[in-house]
Structures are given as structure tokens and as C-alpha cells.
Amino acid sequence: MDKNVRQKEMLDYVIRHQEVTIQSLSQMFNVHEMTIRRDLEELEKKYPIKRTHGGVISKIYRNIESLYNYRSTLNTLQKEEIASKAANLIDDGDFIFLDSGTTTLELAKLIINKNITVVINDFHIYDILKYSETLNILFASGKITKEYRYMTGGSLNESFYNNLYANKAFLGVMAVDFLQGVYQSDLKVALSKRGMVRNAEQVYVMADTSKFDKKTSYKVCDIKDVNYLITDSSFDSTLYSIPSQLNII
């Protein structure tokens, strides 16, 4: 696993669980305890955690909603830029899948007055869209993931999408590998996204450049299954091997 991806997942885990031992993190990420100590030393300089004897604790966040709010503050300008690009690709009459996440949340704010059908699986997004007088909103079935207030449920949620067909799907992901595909760190979430990919005419992945050339635990789909990658203006195509069929926006 890429170091930056490991540290991001480690930070999320520490904030969510409040107090974690170095031994458990070592087992979770399958790296030596010394590597975990170095990771925590770097993270402590930038984020609200504190190393302790044999472990680490979260200093600020005391509930899941605070964790979500914290993640929504990361790369805010990039998320807004990506969402603006995505909104311009949505036309009245579209039937779209809108994935969960803090980047797609920004997109939700921009489509509230559009005349479209939107299938969602995120309660944060529903809280924004529920006041719209023009949207036709469908909520995916499955099991509620309480940590982030969205619907997954693994194969149950994946099969929900098999009964629908969208002309556009807008996905948020944890990592993008231009040779292999796009990835997510949670299997149930990955299965939900797979359902969207399989049942959409065009797949749009929304990701800032910090997620490029990385992998996490579970593949959502091959890179050939992605029609468009919507990213931020810092993207430099000379730094990556971009497949010819992938359109960058």
C-alpha cells in the first residue's frame, strides 16, 4: 500500500476509534511497528492526534459526524472545482447515479435546481437535495453505514442498481491507478460503486490529484470502465501514463 494512502486510512481510523495501539495498527496495515511509529510522528505534526506510550489518541474529534465534517475540509477548493466541472455535464432529463462522499456532496449543492432523476445513497446529500422542487430523488436500498450516514450493505446494495440504468454515474473514490483501475478501502462501499458502474452508460470518476497513482484494498472497476476522470486544475498529464480511452476533464 502506498505510504500516503496508508497514512490517510490510519488517520481516519484513529479519529474514528479515538485510541489505538501501535501493535494493532501494525497488524492492520501489515507493516513493522517502527514504520507505524514513523507514520504517526509525521501525522502528529499536521493533524489532531497525539502519540502515547505504545499507541495514539485523537485530540479533538469525539463523534462520527465530526469526522465527516473534518474530512469535508480537506482539499476544499479542489472539490469545489471538480464539482463545478461535473455540474456542467449534467443536463435536464438526465437519470444519474450520485455516489456518497465529500466531493459528490459539493456536486449535490449545484444540481438542486436541475430537472433530473438522481439516485443517491448518502444522507448528507439527501439533507441538501430534499428541499428541491425539481429533482426526482431515489434512495438506494441496503444497510446504513452509521459511520458516515450512507447506504452500502455489500451485495444487497450492489444488486439494487441492477434494477436501474442511468445515463451518467458520478463516483468518488479513494485512489486511482491509471494502469489498473479505481479503488476503495472498504469492501461494502466498493461493491456499491461496482453496481453503479455496471449499470451506467457513462462513468465519471471525481478525484483530485492527491489520489492519483495509488491503490487501496478493493478495486471498484478497471480503468477501461471509466469514461471520464474529472479532476482539479493542478493535473499535469506529463506525470502520468494516461490510457488513450480515458477522457480527462
UniProtKB/TrEMBL annotation:
Does Transcription regulation appear among the keywords?
yes
Q: A Pfam family name for this chain?
A: DeoRC
Write down the superkingdom of origin. Answer: Bacteria
User: Nucleotide-binding: present as a keyword of the record?
Assistant: no
Q: Which GO terms describe its molecular function?
A: DNA-binding transcription factor activity
Keyword terms: Transcription, Transcription regulation
Concerning SUPFAM superfamilies, the annotation shows:
NagB/RpiA/CoA transferase-like, Winged helix' DNA-binding domain
InterPro entries found in the cross-reference section: Carb_Metab_HTH_regulators, DeoR-like_C, DeoR_HTH, NagB/RpiA_transferase-like, WH-like_DNA-bd_sf, WH_DNA-bd_sf
Domain named HTH deoR-type is located at 3-58
Protein's name according to its UniProt entry: HTH deoR-type domain-containing protein
Please name the source species: Facklamia languida CCUG 37842
